[in-house]
């Protein structure tokens, strides 16, 4: 008889633990279910415009915010999620062969592609084969590549497309290794999701570096009409 309360006492926490684990499992499943079931919406210019006004809205004057605004005319058609990377680039840049031929400037690229990681950069470089023809593509990320190496390559050769992360591209522009005056297109890898289902603008560091890069010179060039933005 004396044993009975002990047994009861022992079995209670076990039941509690089990139900807590089950609840946790249920919760976990629910979150990924929601993410899987929510159909991805293709990015549109308004998404980037809203992101910029939210980011700058807190600590800029009305005049400063006005100068950082991008109108719809600054944008290329956005990817409606039906395109491969090559077919998207062909659609937004039908005169690529001519642009490529005319590009002679060193320290610059005609097209800049910005994405969230070195690995994703390599994927995009592979998937633009059908579009790029025999043009030269430069990897512009930090993983395994020193910034001095990239600066030397840009100084010595003519490159048509740069693909990389916003942090490294920003550093190259700041150190005068990359000049954006010949850049006509800047493509943001907007819709792609990583294993955690995050897009590039869902990752705080990538989002901040992308906005810094845009603010540094891209927004001005877009407003002047020399650069067009594309959301892939």
From TrEMBL:
GO terms for cellular component: 90S preribosome; nucleus. It comes from the Eukaryota. SUPFAM superfamilies: P-loop containing nucleoside triphosphate hydrolases. Residues 20-42 are annotated as: Disordered. PANTHER family: PROTEIN CMSS1 (PTHR24030:SF0). This is CMS1 protein. It comes from Pedionomus torquatus (Plains-wanderer). The gene is Cmss1.
């Amino acid at each position: 008889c004396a044993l009975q309360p002990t047994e009861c006492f022992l079995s209670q926490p076990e039941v509690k633990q089990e139900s807590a684990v089950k609840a946790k499992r249920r919760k976990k499943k629910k979150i990924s279910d929601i993410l899987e079931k929510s159909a991805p919406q293709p990015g549109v210019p308004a998404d980037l415009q809203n992101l910029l006004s939210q980011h700058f809205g807190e600590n800029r004057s009305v005049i400063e915010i006005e100068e950082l605004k991008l109108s719809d005319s600054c944008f290329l058609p956005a990817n409606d999620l039906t395109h491969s990377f090559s077919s998207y680039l062909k659609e937004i840049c039908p005169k690529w062969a001519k642009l490529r031929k005319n590009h002679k400037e060193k320290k610059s690229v005609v097209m800049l592609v910005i994405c969230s990681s070195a690995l994703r950069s390599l994927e995009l470089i592979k998937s633009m084969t059908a579009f790029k023809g025999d043009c030269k593509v430069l990897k512009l990320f930090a993983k395994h590549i020193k910034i001095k190496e990239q600066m030397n390559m840009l100084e010595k050769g003519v490159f048509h497309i740069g693909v990389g992360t916003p942090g490294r591209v920003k550093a190259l522009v700041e150190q005068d290794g990359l000049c954006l005056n010949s850049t006509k297109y800047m493509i943001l890898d907007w819709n792609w999701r990583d294993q955690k289902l995050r897009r590039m603008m869902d990752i705080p560091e990538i989002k901040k570096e992308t906005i810094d890069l845009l603010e540094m010179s891209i927004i001005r060039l877009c407003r002047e009409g020399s650069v067009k933005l594309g959301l892939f």
